[in-house]
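worker-03 picked up job from queue 'complexes'. Input manifest follows; two sequence lines, order preserved.
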Amino acid sequence: MALKRPALEATISNALSALVVGGAAGAVVVIALIPMIAGLIRDGLAARLTPTMTSVASIAIGVGATVFLITQLPIFLIWLERKIAAHIQDRLGPMRVGWHGVLQSFADGLKLLFKEDIIVDGADKFLFKLAPFLTIMGAFAAFAVLPWGEGLVISNLNIGLLYAIAITSLGAIGILMAGWASNNKYALYGGMRSAAQMVSYEIPTAIVILSVVVQVGSLNLSDVIAAQQGGVGGVTNWFIFRLYGLNVIGFILFFICGLAETNRNPFDIPEAESELVAGFHTEYSGMRFAFFFLAEYGAMFFVAALTAVLFLGGWSGPFFSGPLVLFVKTLALVFVQMWLRWTLPRLRVDQLMALCWKYLIPISFVVLIAAAIDGVVGS
Amino acid sequence: METLAPKIIFWVFTGLMLGSALVVVLGTNLVRAAFALLATFFSVAAFYAMLGADFLAGVQILVYVGGILTLFLFGVMLTNRIYGLELETATFQLGSGALVSLTVFAVLVTVVLTTPWSQTALVEEGPTTPAIGRLLMTEYVLPFEIASVLLLVALLGAAMLVRRRIDL
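worker-03 finished. Artifact:
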């Protein structure tokens, strides 16, 4: 009997792998068809409910779909990151659990669910429990203003960009809270470093966003995308190609700041494992730890999506438009984020601050002033 | 339903704001008080949003939660002496204190009840951002510039104070 187990295991593993790969392919098809599905749902609701209830119901459906996307996406992104890391380092990465390790993240997630939820003795128990929720709230609430297609946005806020910068700062508060409540010197240092970093890098981020706002004349993300449509092949009107190439600098600045705001390498000193064990989440275990992980990958995806919306035309593409275009652009940027993580060494604290205050902020002001002058001369 | 929902939201945020403000005032733990401010600031932003002041609501969160509160927490955590300090909220002079606070309360209640509050229906003004920007750059450009220069001076002053002295 002992000999037969591997065969059974292989069968189960193959079946599950096929399910996961098929599910991923199905998800891509569903994302491509979202405009059609959303239209059908909207018509169906409008026929049965009052206008107010229709908008409430469509917001609820949008929130549900987004929550599903951003809780499932990290499973794929973590697997992707491990694979990319392995191939950059001339290894294979996870290979055992399922076809090319596609089931690895599911296995890890299950393991985290079953782990003991340890709350250390000296911790501030209430804040310790609250911190992961606050962090994940900051990362997820930002998705409310992300437009996926024509009219496909949960909340078409006319202060969308302001909201996006403001709500992501909740993440910094959550990390500070985690660091302090853990009652651990490494956690406290990690929390402080993270907050200092996020507060500093928020400034060039906001200024680069302002340079785009000056060119659009609106804080609404849908207007930003509308301003980038048309042009040769539907590409030349993207902001990255405008303002005499200065927007390329803005794009690079925004990408760098995005890395810093999500605490990604080379800016991951808040959780630098060689000095701080694991930084602010040293004392966390089980699902509370997983929440920090989900928040990190959610924030990564959001920053990449925002970069795509601001500079790469969002959901409008050269051949066809829609959620799939934004998804592909975002994943390409996420790939670059991961690529950088495994090729660049970590910056020291002082280097990190010097980079922000001495280089990024002055350069971002140059881009902003150039955009303003161009706007005044152009009108 | 459509008239009840805003009322429920209003009272939920009022409760949250007053409750968290009480934690700030009465709490004995300085860091917890600072974190309680988070809920207070958020509720104020919610009130702005309910009044149709969309830009102010965003700025409230950006400036108070993203900037000021983070710096507060920073200051509290970095300062050794208040890090483990137990704040005292002792009660003394109960009689005279009660007299003073009751008088102030009575005056406030009288004012609230006798003032003819002008109530107007909420006007849907649409996006306020362009209007605020235009006013700042035309009518209120002088106060705006003075505030900017003041902040710059404060920034330079802070940098000067913490700078290590270099003998030239």
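worker-03 released lock.
Residues 110 and 287 of chain A are 10 Å apart (CA to CA).
Chain A has twelve helices and no strands.
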